[in-house]
Design brief:
- With 173 residues, this protein is mainly beta.
- The chain contains one helix and 13 strands.
- The protein has one domain.
- The strands form two sheets. It has a six-stranded antiparallel barrel. The protein has a two-stranded antiparallel ribbon with strand order 3-4.
- It starts with a strand and ends with a strand.
Length: 173
């Protein structure tokens, strides 16, 4: 299921499947979408703005795309690993769109908790954030990313919490 939320200016996207426990899916980057393969998406992204690529402290990929004038992060995506209290480890794809960039070159967004009602009567509360800043030359960016999912049974008792903690990231042109 694809969820989007936030203000009309910011759109957030995460892939989520709810079964008895929270199961979150990774959204893989295709060879077309990777700038180093020079596919159709890389060409159109370059024409639209600047694309920054890098990694997180979890050794996961992060991509930040800006508008041509640099005043907006048109898309920020990563894969992020969560550790669950029930003993599992989950990796998911997470992303934000339409983030305004301040005059001090900073951007960010926080959401949640947002409750998802699952078919089996359980609920999952989702929350997270992104924050980042570009260097003065606007050739690199760095920041933090968080994601947390709390699953409750039909009675409202917490059955599992999956949390990434604060994950740092760096990306460059």
């Amino acid at each position: 299921m694809r969820l989007s939320g936030g203000s009309s200016r910011v759109r957030r996207i995460v892939s989520v499947c709810g079964v008895a426990a929270v199961v979150l899916a990774v959204v893989p980057l295709t060879a077309e979408a990777r700038p180093d393969h020079g596919g159709p998406l890389a060409t159109s992204a370059a024409a639209a703005g600047t694309v920054f690529g890098g990694t997180t402290a979890q050794d996961m990929p992060v991509v930040i795309e800006t508008s041509k004038n640099g005043r907006r992060v048109t898309r920020a995506i990563t894969a992020i690993r969560l550790t669950c209290t029930a003993g599992g480890i989950v990796t998911l794809g997470d992303g934000y769109q339409k983030l305004p960039v301040s005059k001090k070159r900073k951007f960010g967004f926080t959401f949640g908790p947002s409750t998802q009602r699952n078919d089996d009567g359980t609920t999952t509360d989702l929350e997270g954030s992104i924050s980042g800043a570009f260097n003065k030359a606007r050739t690199s960016a760095s920041g933090t990313w968080t994601f947390k999912a709390t699953t409750r049974d039909a009675a409202g008792t917490v059955t599992d919490t999956c949390d990434s903690g604060r994950v740092t990231w760096k990306a460059k042109q």
